[in-house]
């Protein structure tokens, strides 16, 4: 498993070029991008190439999939990136019935089919709103039941929802492509609960051992609202590297 940087962590640190330079300075060779950065597909691809970094996975929210699908395909092809992730539904766009989630998952499945013809896999990234319900009947369960949609677990959000990440990792082992490595102090409120990887309550040894039995290729270091971007990236990379060495 590669240890890679999620650019959402450093979204406040200048433009895309600045964010990529910071990730490289912290020792990363691989990243996951977030959206199109208000650039054309060619402009974005040129900036990434100049950085020397590899885009392993790319996030695009629902609105981008709906309105800029052709540009998503173009930038993925230019970057030779074979994984697209849908990570976010705005609160007013979230279904409030099982029927609504089935319709939403059906649309994701259609996009997945289109991307698959170009060798690109589509994954869904969870928060906590999509983990509500009885086991097997949550929005996440309905989405993954489509059969052609992969999963990118956000470990911090799984713990925030009161779940054991290893249980879901084992249940959906065949669906997992990567994770967001995010830690948490559940006693905190809102964004104050997030912690640098290794500074929270996540049992990373258990999580990584479970992931070793899946197709997980990337551990994307993330912190939603870090006060120290440099520390978050360097600490996360070092901690996960040490943990992977222990379970090897």
From TrEMBL:
Residues 20-222 form the Xylose isomerase-like TIM barrel domain. The keyword Translocase does not apply. Keywords: Isomerase. It comes from the Bacteria. GO terms for molecular function: isomerase activity. The keyword Nucleotidyltransferase does not apply. Gene3D superfamilies: Divalent-metal-dependent TIM barrel enzymes. Pfam families: AP_endonuc_2 (PF01261). This is Sugar phosphate isomerase/epimerase.
């Amino acid at each position: 498993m590669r240890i890679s940087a999620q650019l959402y962590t450093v979204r406040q640190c200048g433009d895309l070029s600045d964010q990529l330079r910071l990730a490289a300075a912290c020792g990363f060779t691989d990243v996951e991008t977030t959206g199109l950065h208000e650039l054309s597909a060619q402009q974005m691809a040129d900036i990434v190439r100049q950085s020397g970094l590899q885009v392993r996975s790319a996030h695009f929210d629902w609105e981008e999939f709906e309105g800029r699908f052709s540009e998503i395909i173009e930038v993925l092809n230019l970057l030779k990136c074979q994984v697209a992730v849908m990570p976010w539904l705005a609160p007013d766009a979230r279904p409030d019935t099982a029927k609504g989630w089935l319709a939403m998952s059906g649309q994701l499945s259609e996009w997945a089919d289109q991307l698959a013809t170009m060798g690109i896999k589509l994954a869904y990234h969870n928060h906590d709103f999509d983990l509500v319900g009885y086991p097997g009947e949550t929005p996440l369960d309905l989405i993954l039941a489509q059969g052609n949609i992969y999963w990118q677990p956000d470990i911090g959000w799984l713990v925030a929802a009161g779940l054991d990440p290893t249980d879901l990792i084992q249940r959906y082992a065949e669906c997992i492509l990567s994770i967001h490595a995010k830690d948490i102090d559940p006693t905190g409120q809102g964004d104050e609960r997030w912690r640098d990887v290794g500074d929270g309550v996540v049992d990373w040894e258990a999580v990584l051992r479970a992931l070793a039995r899946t197709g997980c290729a990337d551990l994307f270091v993330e912190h939603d609202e870090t006060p120290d971007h440099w520390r978050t990236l360097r600490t996360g990379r070092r901690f996960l590297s040490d943990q992977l060495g222990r379970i090897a």
